[in-house]
Amino acid sequence: MTIAEQPEDWTEPGAHPVRPGVHRVPLPLPSNGLHAVNAYVIESPEGPVVVDSGWAMPDTEKALADALRTLGHRLADVACVLVTHAHWDHYSQALALRGAFGTRVRIGRGERPSIEAFDPEKGLYPRQVELLRRCGAAEIADRIATVEISDHERDVPWKLPDGWLDNGERVSLGPVGLDVFATPGHTRGHVVLRDAAAGLLYAGDHVLPHITPSLGLEVVPDPKPLRSYLDSLRLVRGMPDTLLLPAHGPVTPSVHTRVEELLVHHEQRLDATLHAVRSGAGTAYEVALALPWTRRRRTLDDLDLFSQMLAVLETDAHLDLLTDQGVLVAADLGGVRAYARS
Q1: What is the pLDDT of residues 254-264, one digit of tens each?
Q2: Which one Pfam family would you cite for this protein (predicted)?
């Protein structure tokens, strides 16, 4: 599928055309791992509509304002922000716009439990600390429990949206129609937005061109995040192919191509996870120690603390799926879940 010319560096600031009336706007992030998140600006009769909004901070607001200005708009002109999921780099700037200009904000209904349950006084990852202990990663859990909330995290706005996006709903933006599909996995309430007429999928973090999204990193995670994620990938694979408009990375010509790569990746990880158990690893932590991580095939100990948490929890999700499939059996021993061949 044909893509409008894009900058070589996808994080380059500006309003980059995707289709007539649709522009990609990279916004900066306060993160060492991910440097930018894509917002998408869609022209509508009521004013520009933004899909995902960035992290609420001055640099993000300025980058979005500058991009809108090149399109003949101001921040106050934004009619609505449609948010794929309730992570700060997608949701919090939308709430800041609402506070400043009354901008309407909508997000997937499945995000409600995590939005309502978030309490910064309980720490950033209270549920993840519990899960890490169950995975046999007590030392990582202890370190995560003591991570302090930074100023740019503590001060982000965090409230309920003005309205929910429901699976099967059609959002009408004048001549543009966006179909809402629930795609749980990355978060339990993640949604993608599909413009069938223009051949576009606003994929959020569900399908990313260069990385695999984390699973269940939220206050109230899906109890079976990998199963949900794979089902959601197959749902998208069953649709006619479109351009992939991801939250992180460049626009790419085929959603299906990347979905197939992600499905193969997880099949390979399931195989490697099973092999680690057959070789003697018993807990998610032990299996994670036995597996390579990132494209550089680093060890778990070589990862930073946040990535170690994600790696162990992803491993646990793969072990849980293998248990559901009857390949492994699980038993809780003193609060730690151990796996063995069935």
Answers
A1: 999 999 999 99
A2: Lactamase_B
